[in-house]
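Intended use. Records like the one below are meant for learning the mapping from a protein sequence to its folded structure. Do not use them to infer anything beyond what is encoded.
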Amino acid sequence: MPPEGMFYEDLIEEYIFNRLNISQRTQFEEALENNTDLQFEFRWQLEIIRCLQFYRKQQLKHRLDSVAC
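Structure written out for the chain above:
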């Protein structure tokens, strides 16, 4: 269960971007092992982040390729 006032989505984001302290990180990893709903949401959010990172990388690459030398 996420801390008061926090949703799983927020907690997952904090975990992915390494913003949790050691205790919170350990609790999250234990919850992730035992909660299939959390596992699904974690995988889903991680995939979204990876897709956005890829898209941004492609966008930057396209902009750099279009610069006239």
